Structures are given as structure tokens and as C-alpha cells.
């Protein structure tokens, strides 16, 4: 039996972008572009009439701000939304807010030469829209919280205070689509003196610093953008600088960050597999690996290597994942020691870290 193509509504104030996205998406037999809209008010009427499976939504539009429209949509008629965002610091912050409101993923729109920029990423755009069609979206519960506080929708759990030596445990976490919010949920529940955490999130280079700053504001741990050769310490979480891989290397009794600008792995830079394989090699049984929501299979083989090295492994469960691509791939590979709901992942990481090696 053939599967019906996913129906897409394109919402963008640029006629050029609407035309380009229509051509790119309609070129895939698994996608049907059912309509376009130049602003959110027109989009609202077309959503009622066309009943799309996925919406692509520009952030900056006339008559209604894209974030305000997204917030209303996720409260009243939740749909998978892929944001179209500019590669600027302001665009990065707005996109992170959109992901906090429930957008599944985002497509980066270059400031210059939009035509060639979008065409160059045609395959990725198609893949993200098709993944969004399979994503789980939930109604946005709003209780009068101002947008500036939207990242704190989930309260931090009361975790026990812990005491670790520098090389006792090392936690490695990888994520992709849906991961910006999943990582926030995990980190805001970790105690200030938790073992060191090394992270990889698929995100454009220009988004990395605003993302690190956002995580740091909502975590008792110190979240920082790693520098090459930096010592990895308890109570700290490290993400690679934008568009670069991060590895863990051993330096005597401690670990350090190694940052490199090597080629993309699994089509990603940074790649989860790059980080996980270095953790398996240099931390072995001291490692705890976790894969959160994400599209594709990056990290699955690296997680298996952590498991084979004697480390604990877990993945986010399907029910709480926005996209169960990466966690599902790890389960199928036999790399996942546990499958855990998002709200319990921090608790399990702390419990596993407290076990004797």
C-alpha cells in the first residue's frame, strides 16, 4: 500500500522563498505542497481549509510576528512546524525561542544569495520536512508566562548533591532535532556538582554561542563553549564551538577537550559519533553515553562503542522524543542499555554516575 505524501503549507513573506521552497519540496514524491501564504493571518485561513501535515514558517513577517503566530498555533491547533530562520545572532535567539515553543526543527536562510543558499541545502530541507511530518507535537500549556521566561516551562527537579573526583565519571550526550529543548530539560535538572558533561547538538555555527548562553542560564552547572585543550571538570558542561567537532582526549589523570575543523561525519559537524568514539576510547567504563531526540542515525555507532568499552548507555524513549531517529537507530543497533523518558534522564544519569566503576 502506498503512503500518502505529507501535505505542506509554506508561510513566508518573500515570494522568492515561497517559490523556491515550493519547487524544492514538490520535487520529492513524498511531499505535496498544498499551498503558500505571505503572512500568518492568511496562513490561519489556509490551515483551516487545507489541513496541512507540516508548516514551514518564516520568523519575520508582516501583520503578525512569526513567534506570536507559532505560540497561538501550538496552543490551539498543534502542528509540526519547521522554522525558516536567518543565520544571524538575532535569528539564532529567535529560532531557539521558536524551538522552546514547540517548533520541530529549522532551516537556515542565508542573508545573501538566498536562491543558491536554499538550493544547496535542498536535500536537507526535504529530509527535515518529511521528518517533521512524523514528529510528535503537543499542545503548548501557557499560564501567563512572558515569552522571556518560556524556557523554564519545566521546573528543575530536586537532585541530591553529589561529590565526584575529576575522572570518576564522564557523561556524553548527543542530540539533533528537538534536542535544544531536550538538553535544556536534562541540564536544568542536573546538580551543580554533577560529573562533567560533554555535549554535541546538531546546530549551525552561528547558533552555538546563543545556545550555550541559553543553557547556562537554566542550569546549576556551568555550561560553556569549549576551547581546544581546555580541562574537563566536574560541574561543567561543554559544547563545541559552532561548526567544529569536539573530542575528548586523556591527559594523565584528567580529560581535555580537543577541537578540530575536520570534515563532516554522518553529514554533520559537529557529529555525535566523533565525540562518542573519543569518549569510548579515553573514558571507557567511566563513561555514560546518552542519545536524545534527533533525526538520522548519528551517534548510534559511537554509543555502541561506549557500551562495548564498559560504559553505561541510555536513549530517550519514543513517546517523549520529537523525532525518534537517532535514539531508535541506537536501539536497533543494540547500543542502548536503557530507554528512558525525557523527564527521567537526568535522574538516571545521576544514579548511574553514583555507581562504582
Automatic annotation (TrEMBL):
Please report the stretch or stretches of sequence annotated as the Response regulatory domain: 7-124
Entry annotated with the keyword DNA repair? no
Q: Which residues form the active site?
A: 176, 202, 298
The record ties this protein, via Pfam families, to: CheB_methylest, Response_reg
Q: Which ranges carry the CheB-type methylesterase domain?
A: 164-356
Q: Which PANTHER family match?
A: PROTEIN-GLUTAMATE METHYLESTERASE/PROTEIN-GLUTAMINE GLUTAMINASE (PTHR42872), PROTEIN-GLUTAMATE METHYLESTERASE_PROTEIN-GLUTAMINE GLUTAMINASE (PTHR42872:SF6)
Tell me what this protein is called: Protein-glutamate methylesterase/protein-glutamine glutaminase
Q: Which organism is it from?
A: Pseudoxanthomonas wuyuanensis
Amino acid at each position: 500500500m502506498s503512503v500518502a505524501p505529507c501535505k505542506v503549507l509554506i508561510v513566508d513573506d518573500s515570494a522568492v522563498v515561497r517559490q523556491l521552497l515550493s519547487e524544492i519540496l514538490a520535487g520529492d514524491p513524498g511531499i505535496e505542497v498544498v499551498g503558500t501564504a505571505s503572512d500568518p493571518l492568511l496562513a490561519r485561513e489556509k490551515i483551516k481549509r487545507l489541513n496541512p501535515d507540516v508548516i514551514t514558517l518564516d520568523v519575520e513577517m508582516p501583520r503578525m510576528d512569526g513567534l506570536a503566530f507559532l505560540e497561538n498555533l501550538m496552543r490551539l491547533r498543534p502542528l509540526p512546524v519547521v522554522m525558516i530562520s536567518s543565520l544571524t545572532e538575532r535569528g539564532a535567539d529567535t529560532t531557539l525561542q521558536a524551538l522552546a515553543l514547540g517548533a520541530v526543527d529549522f532551516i537556515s536562510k542565508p542573508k545573501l544569495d538566498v536562491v543558491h543558499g536554499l538550493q544547496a541545502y535542498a536535500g536537507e530541507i526535504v529530509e527535515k520536512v518529511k521528518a517533521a511530518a512524523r514528529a510528535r507535537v503537543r499542545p503548548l500549556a501557557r499560564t501567563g508566562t512572558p515569552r522571556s521566561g518560556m524556557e523554564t516551562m519545566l521546573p528543575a527537579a530536586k537532585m541530591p548533591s553529589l561529590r565526584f573526583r575529576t575522572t570518576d565519571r564522564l557523561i556524553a550526550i548527543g542530540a539533533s532535532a528537538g534536542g535544544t529543548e531536550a538538553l535544556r530539560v536534562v541540564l536544568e535538572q542536573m546538580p551543580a556538582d554533577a560529573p562533567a558533561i560533554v555535549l554535541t547538538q546538531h546546530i549551525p555555527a552561528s547558533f552555538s554561542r546563543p545556545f550555550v548562553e541559553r543553557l547556562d542560564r537554566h542550569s546549576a552547572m556551568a555550561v560553556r563553549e569549549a576551547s581546544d585543550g581546555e580541562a574537563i571538570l566536574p560541574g561543567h558542561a561543554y559544547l563545541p564551538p559552532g561548526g567544529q567537532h569536539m573530542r575528548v582526549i586523556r591527559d594523565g589523570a584528567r580529560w581535555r577537550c580537543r577541537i578540530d575543523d575536520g570534515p563532516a561525519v554522518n553529514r554533520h559537524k559537529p557529529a555525535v559519533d566523533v565525540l562518542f568514539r573519543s569518549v569510548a576510547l579515553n573514558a571507557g567504563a567511566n563513561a555514560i553515553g546518552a542519545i536524545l531526540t534527533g533525526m538520522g542515525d548519528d551517534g548510534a555507532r559511537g554509543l555502541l562503542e561506549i557500551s562495548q568499552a564498559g560504559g553505561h548507555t541510555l536513549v530517550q524513549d519514543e513517546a517523549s522524543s520529537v523525532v525518534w531517529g537517532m535514539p531508535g537507530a541506537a536501539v536497533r543497533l543494540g547500543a542502548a542499555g536503557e530507554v528512558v523518558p525525557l523527564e527521567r534522564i537526568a535522574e538516571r544519569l545521576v544514579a548511574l554516575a553514583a555507581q562504582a566503576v
